[in-house]
Each structure stands twice: as structure tokens, then as C-alpha cells.
Design a protein that fits this description.
six-stranded antiparallel sheet; 8 strands; alpha+beta; 197 residues; two-stranded antiparallel ribbon
């Protein structure tokens, strides 16, 4: 981590010359903090290609919306609380029953940007609920079967594909390298040979 004060002048110059980064910083600064994971909305930033049996492609953004309704609070209030408060609160919620989220697909229309995560689509875009996720209990890493926590968004089921978004195209390699560093398995990483020469 760098030491010393934030270089605000340098940051302002960078954001001025990188409008996409400026939009992300603005969205993040304006976003309220969650009160509970059970009452949090989760929005995928990337666009995915959903392909049906007739090879018709529908470009979508995915949203997980809590059936119990969304609740937020000022970021400063959450910042002053325990670092574990949301995890502890979610475990407590599960003691009273399952927590459910609807999977809602937001459908692109012609002209909507498909490869820029900083460009949101108009609010009027059609949304379709296609499923429900029910969380009934916490799980251990052993039960999860993924101690590396390599949540690669490019590992998809048949009928769903990534598009030409340069960020999602880069994430597969970045996630592999991250998992390799964290598990001591760097030399099993496909990119290792680049660094062994």
C-alpha cells in the first residue's frame, strides 16, 4: 500500500483523461451502503449473450433482487460498524428462515452499449424474472469446494457466453493469476512460462 496523502491533483488529471474511470468513481461515490445482505440488490456489470435453441442471441444484464425488498444506509454508518456486521447479520437472518432472491434479466435494445461496464442502460429496458435463488444456510469452504475462491465470471453454462467487453475478456487470466498466487500454485498457472524465462 502506498504511504502518504492522496495525490488529489494527479487523481483529478487521471479522471479527466479517462472518462470511463471517472464514471465508475462517480457511481461508487453515490452508491449507498447495504443494511443487510438479505436486503441487498446484486447487479452484474457485464453484458452476457443468452443463446436459445434456435441460436437467437439476447444480450442481457443480470440482477439478483431480494424478495424481502432492498434497504440501504449511508456509507458512513456502515463504515463505523464492525467489519463482520453484514456476515453476522446474514447468519442471524438465516436462523429465521430462507432468504430468497429473484434472478431478473434486463434485455438490451438496439444501440445499447454492450462492451462498456460504465454505461448503464435506460431505466425503461424490459426486465424478465427467470428464476429464484433460495439461501437456507451458511456453508463452509469445504462444503463450497472452492477454497481458492476463484469466482471467474467467464466460466459459464451452455447457452450463455461472454461478449467482446475487454474487461471481462481480461478477467479470466487475472483471476487465474490471483488464485495461483494465493494458493502457492503459480507454476501451474498457464502464464507461468512467461516469467520463468
Amino acid at each position: 500500500m502506498p504511504n502518504g496523502p492522496i495525490n488529489r491533483e494527479g487523481l483529478a488529471e487521471f479522471l479527466e483523461s479517462h472518462p470511463a474511470s471517472a464514471r465508475v468513481v462517480k457511481m461508487r461515490a453515490e452508491a449507498p451502503a447495504p443494511v443487510s445482505f438479505a436486503h441487498s440488490e446484486f447487479h452484474a456489470i457485464h453484458v452476457f449473450r443468452f443463446i436459445n435453441e434456435d441460436d437467437v442471441v439476447t444480450n442481457v444484464r443480470c440482477h439478483w433482487l431480494p424478495q424481502g425488498g432492498a434497504q440501504t444506509q449511508p456509507a458512513a454508518e456502515l463504515a463505523s460498524a464492525s467489519k463482520e456486521i453484514l456476515l453476522d447479520e446474514f447468519d442471524e437472518c438465516l436462523n429465521f428462515g430462507p432468504v430468497r432472491y429473484d434472478l431478473v434479466l434486463e434485455l438490451a435494445e438496439p444501440g445499447d452499449p454492450l462492451d462498456d461496464v460504465t454505461c448503464l442502460w435506460p431505466e425503461a429496458r424490459r426486465r424478465v424474472t427467470v428464476g429464484t435463488l433460495e439461501v437456507t444456510a451458511a456453508v463452509t469452504l469445504e462444503e463450497l469446494g472452492d477454497p481458492e475462491m476463484n469466482h471467474d465470471p467467464t466460466k459459464l453454462t451452455d447457452g450463455i457466453e461472454v461478449n467482446d467487453d475487454p474487461i471481462i475478456q481480461a478477467r479470466r487470466g487475472v483471476y487465474e493469476v490471483s488464485a495461483a498466487y494465493r494458493t502457492g500454485g503459480w507454476h501451474s498457472c498457464p502464464f507461468a512460462k512467461l516469467y520463468d524465462q
